Amino acid sequence: MEETKKTVEEQEKTAKAPEKTFTQDELNAIVADRLGREKSKYSDYEEIKAKAAKYDQTEENNKSEIQKATENADALQAKIDAMEKADGIRKVRNSVASEMGVPAELLTGADEATCKTQAEAIKNYAKTATYPDVPNGTGGAPTLTKEDILKITNERERVKAIEANIELFKK
Questions:
Q1: Full DSSP string of 15-54
Q2: For the purposes of burial, counting CB atoms within 10 Å of the CB of 115, is it exposed (0-12), middle (13-18) or buried (19 or more)?
Q3: pLDDT classification of 76: cutoffs 50, 70, 90
Q4: Where exactly are the structural domains of the chain?
Q5: Residue 149 and residue 160: Cα distance in Å, rounded?
Q6: Residue 108's closest CA among 121, 99, 127?
């Protein structure tokens, strides 16, 4: 029971004690002090950053010649692989172009199936409209000769002329 009296008395004393209030200047001083302690924790940040950069440079300088050669070889191998892939695509396009009779420059596919689909679409688009055979005074003979057609420099026009006058090339 005596213990409860003591705790009750202590509580009354603490309850009666006035709460401390701070002026603006005191509060500013407390905050400035706290900020100063935090800043002092990180005061050597720039020094550590410089040391880390110096360490990275030292590590780069310490790479062995084998590591540098390996990295160089890997880079060159990547270039070779890219060139081989491009060459393979070029070969596929040229093969399909010659097989289908369309210019390889118009094909953009990376595989044979895509290129063939594109070639078919190009051929369908480039087909000349069929007109009735109207005699032109020479019995319906073509107005262009085989030599005239072969002299056409524009490949697309030459292909159209060959298709239009295919009978000249079947002989």
A1: HHSPPP---HHHHHHHHHHHHHHHHHHTTTHHHHHHHHHH
A2: buried
A3: very high
A4: 68-126, 142-171
A5: 9
A6: 121
The string of DSSP codes covering 149-162 is HHT--SHHHHHHHH
**Max CA separation in the chain (angstroms):** 140
Which pLDDT belongs to residue 118? 92
Q: What is the CA radius of gyration of the chain?
A: 44
Q: What is the pLDDT of residue 81?
A: 96
User: Does 161 have pLDDT greater than 70?
Assistant: yes
Cα–Cα distance measured from residue 143 to residue 135, given in angstroms and rounded to the nearest whole number: 11
pLDDT tens for each residue of 124-157: 887 765 655 555 545 455 578 888 888 889 988 8
Distance, CA of 23 to chain centre: 61
Contact 170, 146 (CB under 8 A): no
Place of tokens 């924790």: 41
- The answer to whether the CB of 75 falls within 8 A of the CB of 83 is no
pTM above 0.70, yes or no: no
Token pair for 162: 């060959």
pLDDT of res. 94: 94
102 touches 123 (CB < 8 A): yes
Residue carrying structure tokens 């701070």: 22
